[in-house]
Design brief:
CATH class: Alpha Beta
CATH architecture: 3-Layer(aba) Sandwich
Strand order of the largest sheet: 2-1-3-4-5
Structural class: alpha/beta
CATH superfamily: Response regulator
Shape: globular
Helix content: 40-55%
Largest sheet: 5 strands, parallel
Number of domains: 1
Order of helices and strands: EHEHEHEHEH
Distance between the termini: 7 Å
Number of strands: 5
Radius of gyration: 14 Å
Length: 135
């Protein structure tokens, strides 16, 4: 994966979304960041672009605890959808949860590339960019 052209943040916290968007842009990861407030809205983006690689995010930052469907619910649905996607979509859990159970639960999903604890930091994003998006 040569570069991240489009990043999707799925988190019900609007302030966190604003801050993360700014940090993602400052890190040089990408300039195109979209934020949605629910797992359903994030899934709708994927479903609406299931045949359109350019409409899919390269990377998703996913919160765990959200009203309605949570991050785990999103991952269960994503797991079913993944074989139909025209490109690889990386999923990073981005949560304020420090519970070991949440970190371990994220490891059950092969779809989760990493677990990141909030707040998101520029240096951490640069590490991710180097690891996942350098040619």
């Amino acid at each position: 994966m040569p570069e991240a052209k489009y990043v999707l943040i799925i988190d019900d916290d609007t302030i966190n979304n604003f801050v993360c968007s700014r940090i993602i842009k400052l890190s040089g990861l990408t300039d195109k960041v979209e934020c949605v407030l629910s797992a359903d809205d994030g899934m709708a983006i994927l479903e609406n672009n299931i045949s359109n690689a350019d409409g899919l995010p390269d990377l998703v930052f996913l919160d765990i605890n959200m009203p309605g469907k949570n991050g785990w619910d999103f991952l269960d649905k994503f797991k079913e959808m993944k074989p139909k996607l025209p490109k690889r979509v990386l999923i990073f859990m981005l949560s304020s949860s420090l519970y070991r159970e949440d970190v371990e639960h994220s490891r059950v999903y092969e779809e989760v590339s990493d677990y990141i604890t909030k707040p998101l930091a520029v240096e951490r994003l640069r590490e991710l960019k180097e690891k996942y998006f350098s040619s």
